[in-house]
Amino acid sequence: MMPRMARAHRLEIVPLGGLGEFGMNLMVYRYGGDCVVVDAGMMFPGAEHLGVDVVVPNMDFLDDCGAIHAALLTHGHEDHIGAIPFLLARRDVPIYGTPYTLGLVRGRLAQHELDASPRLVPFPPDGTALRLGPFTVETLAVSHSIPQSSMLVLDTPVGKIVHTADFKLDPYPLSGPGTDLARLARLGEKGVLAVLSDSTNAELPGFTAGERTVGPALARAIEGARGRVLVTTFSSNIHRLQQVIDTGVAHGRKVAIVGSSMEFHTDVALHLGLLRIPPGTSVTPEAAMNLPPERSLFLVTGSQGEPTSALARIAVDKHRDVVVSDGDLVLHSARSIPGNEKSIGRMINHLLRRGATVVTSEDAPIHVSGHPRRDELSLLLHLLRPRFLLPIHGEYRQLAAHAAIGRACGLDPERVLLAESGDLLTLTAEEFRRAERVPVGQVFIDGALDRVDFTMLRDRRQIAGDGIVIAVVAVHRDSGSVSGPAEIASRGFVSDATEEELLREARDVVALSLSDTSLEERADEGLLKAKIQAGLRRFLRKRTQKRPLIIPVIVEL
Ligand SMILES: [Zn+2]
Ligand SMILES: [Zn+2]
Q1: Which residues, by Cβ under 5 Å, contact ligand 1, an ion?
Q2: What is residue 116's three-state secondary structure?
Q3: Which of 3, 300, 453, 511 is the most exposed, having the fewest neighbouring CB atoms within 10 Å of its CB?
């Protein structure tokens, strides 16, 4: 690191995640020895992260980066708040956000049995600026696919920075004031040094449609339904859920919330008055199943086909309360996150096989994105007229597309910076450039919602000490039958003396889990893996008090 003196009069902007990858957004702004952090998110593991539950950014940089005055949260999506417990484990900092965002953070911390309530501070509701060391921060309400999202306006010693985070302009928002275009224009007139803005949809032409446009298509689908209606969407998309509830209730249906994430997000929203379920129309999933089918509406988790989610379990008759059958309607009111298409596809196959009708956003306009497209990004730049642009929140191709939009808006190509996570950028009134690299990367967490693992994370040596267990199971593609016993290997888990005996027993545990699966489950790799993992995790924890990373591998014969 450079000596402090050399840093004076320049602002350092350090993305520790979110640039060049989707997820785990975390940005550090530093002036001299004073920092603020914007967002601390996680990434949902993909197929390449076999068996890992959560991926968070490497935060080594934060250990000796100076005084961190605050972590400022733009909104409550997991890719912006999911790493907060892990940030708090390293540095004791106040966390600022809107009430809904903080409500979600509070719930997440409670899952880790961590009470950080005194450290959770709401943004001043009247728009008063926050003073944080050399920074002054104001928030600006924006439309997005979750309530109470904010852009941040950071007044720094080198100039004004607008950090848009995730937003869309949505001229007809379902509730709230929407994105304040007039205020953006005023900011532009006063002078903006740099804009850091959402690149997610930068490759797509035009404007993202407003949330309201989804309502009529949802209404058409629900209106014509004669059986049960199940709707899945992201649990935090409260405006979408509100539209579904309003339509369902208007057609005489009662509403049941299914799945822990859906319960959690709607609870926080109901508590804050952001979601309304008319009195007398809210029922338990069990009670809803006892109603005539045409009187029930289920809001269920599982829009990404996650094997342990409510809808994935319903789809194979493995849910405790809810069954789907002939004549029921399932609405998939969400996008498929790249990488999840296969598990979503398998889930849909199971639902269709049971006689349900499945409608996705490819069949009807029942989903809109929460991110701005090309023309919105361009409009924003015209309003703010920044000197510099840094595209954030996207893979490199989206960042590059966003940079091209900046140049097309008349920004000097030299003032549009393409950077990736780990680049330490320096900004002065004259210059914005890449200066050096800092350590970044993905940190894998297994069983992240468990207190044991949270404690483990604080002591990385312990994680390393618990090692890895790999279980290989061979399944005949045609018959779905399992071929021979599982092969189980471990590294860094237990001593050689105890390993052999333990792994032999583990093999029996896997055999037992497999004997309890239906043919359909065995044909579904995601479900099969989840089952093997759950059985082994329970067994190994009981026998060794350890939580190794468990990686099930299915080989098709
Ligand atoms: Zn995001
Ligand atoms: Zn978001």
Answers
A1: 79, 166
A2: coil
A3: 3
